[in-house]
Design goal:
single chain; 456 residues; alpha/beta; Lyase, Ornithine Decarboxylase, Chain A, domain 1; TIM Barrel; 9-stranded mixed β-sheet; 8-stranded parallel β-barrel; globular
């Protein structure tokens, strides 16, 4: 018996025993579900994709991407917020085009990301340019494109943008990134709102920076930007940060500065370990919208992970099994060059067979607490010549053998985007599923691709 149509706005979970399907409303749902004992992306079995496209491969669900974007847009609709998708999380041009067609703006952090946004049909008036190290050429290109604003991060950058805008006879708009000094309680490498980070300026210095910029002729410093980190699982740090920034804006307004907009950043967490790990965006909005209602500023948000994270998986085949002392290793054809998050951030990604050999191991839902029948504790490792090349350590998994297909979940954000050619490995293919069909949106790289830029 097949599952229900994937157009329903809910998550479908297979319950063990007599096979039946239950629709459960899930605000942070996705469209990766088991049917008849095997994993589907929307209405396509992922084994079919892997067999035809090869592995490793990234597989994205169009329905999930659009659901999460629309969910954010609806949640912050009372503020008429501009949603700027963070391209750094997953920048495939086809995915960016999907979002641009929905009216989504873009958060970019480099000249390459600006180029991607424009090539995807992005509206330049909805593009915000962030980053601590913008080059002169990147600034000039952004001004020529007519972007909405720069998020500026230092006094030196403010002076430089003003100079370049003057040389181009343009007027730039800037928002000062301030560090509200709140603890987002996330990984040290992705904490960005504390005083000790390289980003922005301390909130205590912000008023002085605005005073110094008062006389600029070609840069209008008219906004505030914050981004406290990612992924952030609690709502309180956002509330604390926004409260501090509102107080800052009130002080700036009393000094005669005209604040036109507030960029709240992004960083909203997603479900890596289980279905209820992350707060739905509606709960964030319920806490933040009342604080911002009636304010005379435009509001922007920069979600990336929340839109793309649970919308993608990484498919990989088991190559070998081996023992190393008392440790069991499952060696797969995806490595740290394909997904670096586990070794870089000690991140957990749920991994499970796409078609478990024992029907009892078809999961009712994804959870770190799953206890498979005849399970074994293994390290899931890749082919890279590094001891840090792993996708999971000490992971309890169902039995798997050579040729079995594994799915690495919640890999849509900072998966392919952070991949590399380390060990001269061609980067994986990317696939987009739309209902009953799929298409390759980035072909697998070839050996010739690895050397093409060197043929000079």
């Amino acid at each position: 018996m097949g599952g229900p149509p994937m157009s329903y706005s809910c998550r479908f979970v297979c319950i063990r025993g007599p096979e039946r399907w239950i629709a459960r409303e899930q605000l942070n749902m996705d469209h990766f579900n088991y049917r008849n004992g095997e994993l589907f992306c929307e209405d396509v079995p992922v084994e079919r994709i892997a067999s035809e496209v090869g592995t490793p491969a990234y597989v994205y669900s169009k329905a999930t991407l659009l659901h999460h974007y629309r969910q954010i847009a609806r949640a912050f609709a009372p503020l008429k917020a501009t949603i700027c998708y963070s391209i750094k999380s997953c920048g495939n041009i086809h995915i960016c085009r999907l979002l641009a067609e929905q009216g989504c703006g873009f958060d970019v952090t480099s000249g390459g990301e600006l180029y991607r946004a424009l090539q995807a049909g992005g509206d330049a008036s909805k593009i915000i340019y962030a980053g601590v190290g913008k080059t002169d050429q990147e600034i000039a290109d952004a001004l020529a494109a007519g972007i909405a604003a720069f998020n500026v991060e230092s006094e030196a950058e403010i002076e430089n943008i003003d100079r370049i805008a003057g040389e181009m006879n343009r007027t730039a708009v800037g928002a000062l990134r301030v560090n509200p000094d709140v603890d987002p309680r996330t990984h040290v490498k992705t904490t960005t709102g504390k005083k000790e980070t390289k980003f922005g300026v301390d909130i205590e210095r912000a008023e002085r920076v605005f005073e110094q910029a008062r006389g600029l002729k070609h840069l209008r410093l008219g906004g505030i930007h914050i981004h406290i980190g990612s992924p952030v699982y609690e709502i309180r740090p956002y509330v604390d940060a926004v409260t501090k920034v509102i107080e800052l804006i009130d002080r700036l307004t009393r000094r005669g500065h005209r604040i036109e907009w507030l960029d709240l950043g992004g960083g909203f967490a997603v479900n890596y370990e289980g279905p209820d790990q992350a707060k739905p965006i509606t709960e964030h909005a319920a806490a933040l919208v009342p604080l911002l209602t009636g304010k005379p500023w435009r509001i922007a948000l920069e979600p990336g992970r929340y839109i793309a994270g649970n919308a993608g998986i990484l498919l990989t085949r088991v190559l070998y099994r081996k023992m190393g002392g008392t440790r069991r290793f499952v060696i797969v054809d995806a490595g740290m060059n394909d997904l670096i998050r586990p070794t870089l951030y000690e991140s957990y990604h749920h991994i499970w067979p796409a078609k478990p050999s024992d029907p009892a191991n078809v999961p009712a839902q994804r959870s770190r607490a799953l206890t498979p029948v005849n399970g074994e504790v293994v390290d899931v490792v890749g082919p890279i010549c590094e001891s840090g090349d792993y996708l999971a350590k000490d992971r309890l998994l169902p039995p798997v053998e050579r040729g079995d297909l594994l799915a690495v979940f919640t890999a849509g954000a900072y998966g392919f985007a952070m991949s590399s050619n380390y060990n001269n490995r061609p980067r994986a293919a990317e696939v987009l599923v739309d209902g009953t069909t799929y298409r390759i949106i980035r072909r697998r790289e070839t050996y010739e691709d690895l050397v093409a830029a060197e043929r000079v």
